[in-house]
């Protein structure tokens, strides 16, 4: 991590000098493609140091199925398998697409999605699955909340259902035999990349407000730490306020509060795009501060998020997009390896990479991480980039 941090410091020093003559009359600098390309090389490796229980980080290269494993997997009887989440939002859609790519490669049907509206809904679903455990091949789950749902997922494991979890591990599951592992993006890298984008735009000086997820979820803990560590590197940047939410719809009000309490804020970092960064952007606009405050987030948010970044009349200037299709591939690859007896996989930490994104590389990153799952960017978004 120290080596990587030093590399970013050297990169930033170069760009400060190179970009100083290009400061426009506007308050903020447009982030150049050269910075993003150099950052992308740095974030090719995972920056999150370990899983929540100190697990070793494993990337997509560690999980890719060999030709021999693919042939063996074709003959596996996986029974029923489910992806448990909320509303099949953009992240879940990309995850599921990646899962289905792997399943198709071994001749298996698509994974069934089980949506839910609350913790109580998900507890009922887990209980139902435990009641027919002998029919279930595996479950990939995005738990609503780790502590409350912990006992239910533990019981599901004790019933013999293999599990992988997205973003956070339900409490008590870590040492269960049927816990395959935690599937994540590089949260630290996402938080740091979004912060680097804001820092450059600010000219490495000014005040920042942070809006973060207040519940314990490893990927969001890492996102916040990545942002805080990044801003702390720059002596002329000060984080003046932080506000935590449990419901992303709270973000507009939290952002209004920060902007009113700290009227000199130059930038706002939100822990994800839809609802959080967009809420902060709406607050900036409602207070008539377009051009005075910029916003960035650790994820893109599909076509909608791309439109916000492309739009010169929106304060959102960038994001740090996780490869959520790769996350889905990692989930099923790990499940298959576990089924084939790869004991090194058990209770693992499986992480996908990050792409920094601003206007200059928006189409390229979108095409790498979203295109095959949700289609091309609409022409009205492309027109905004001209």
From TrEMBL:
Broad class of the protein's primary localization: other
Key words of the record: Signal, Sugar transport, Transport
Statement: the UniProt record of this protein carries the keyword Chloroplast: no
Domain Periplasmic binding protein: 108-311
Keyword Transport attributed: yes
Origin superkingdom: Bacteria
GO terms for MF: carbohydrate binding
Protein localization: Cell envelope
Any one GO CC term of the record: cell envelope
Signal peptide positions on this chain: 1-24
Family membership noted in the UniProt record: Belongs to the bacterial solute-binding protein 2 family.
Protein name in the entry: ABC-type sugar transport system, periplasmic component
């Amino acid at each position: 991590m120290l080596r990587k941090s030093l590399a970013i410091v050297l990169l930033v020093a170069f760009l400060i000098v190179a970009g100083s003559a290009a400061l426009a009359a506007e308050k903020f600098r447009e982030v150049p493609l050269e910075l993003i390309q150099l950052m992308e090389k740095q974030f090719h490796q995972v920056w999150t140091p370990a899983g929540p229980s100190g697990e070793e980080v494993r990337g997509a290269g560690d999980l890719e199925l060999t030709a021999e494993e693919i042939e063996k997997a074709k003959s596996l009887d996986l029974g029923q398998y489910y992806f448990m989440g909320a509303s099949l939002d953009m992240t879940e859609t990309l995850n599921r697409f990646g899962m289905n790519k792997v399943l198709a490669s071994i001749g298996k049907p698509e994974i069934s999605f089980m949506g839910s509206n609350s913790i109580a809904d998900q507890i009922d679903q887990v209980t139902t699955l435990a009641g027919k455990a002998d029919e279930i091949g595996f479950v990939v789950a995005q738990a609503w909340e780790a502590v409350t749902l912990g006992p239910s997922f533990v019981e599901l494991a004790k019933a013999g259902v293999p599990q992988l979890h997205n973003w956070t591990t339900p409490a008590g599951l870590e040492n269960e035999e049927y816990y395959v592992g935690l599937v994540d993006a590089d949260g630290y890298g996402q938080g740091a990349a979004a912060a680097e984008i804001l820092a450059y735009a600010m000219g490495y000086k000014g005040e920042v407000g942070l809006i973060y997820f207040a519940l314990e979820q490893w990927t969001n803990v890492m996102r916040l730490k990545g942002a805080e560590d990044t801003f702390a590197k720059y002596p002329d940047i000060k984080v003046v306020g932080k506000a935590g939410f449990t419901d992303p719809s709270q973000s507009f009000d939290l952002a209004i509060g920060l902007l009113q309490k700290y009227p000199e804020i130059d930038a706002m970092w939100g822990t994800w795009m839809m609802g959080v960064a967009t809420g902060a952007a709406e607050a900036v606009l409602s207070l008539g501060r377009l051009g005075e405050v910029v916003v960035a987030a650790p994820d893109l948010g599909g076509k909608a998020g791309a439109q916000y970044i492309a739009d010169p009349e929106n304060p959102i200037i960038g994001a740090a997009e996780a490869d959520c299709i790769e996350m889905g591939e990692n989930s099923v690859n790990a499940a298959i390896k576990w089924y084939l007896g790869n004991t090194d996989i058990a209770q693992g930490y499986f992480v996908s990479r990050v792409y920094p994104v601003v206007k200059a590389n928006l189409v390229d990153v979108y095409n790498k991480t979203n295109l095959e799952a949700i289609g091309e960017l609409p022409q009205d978004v492309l027109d905004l980039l001209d």
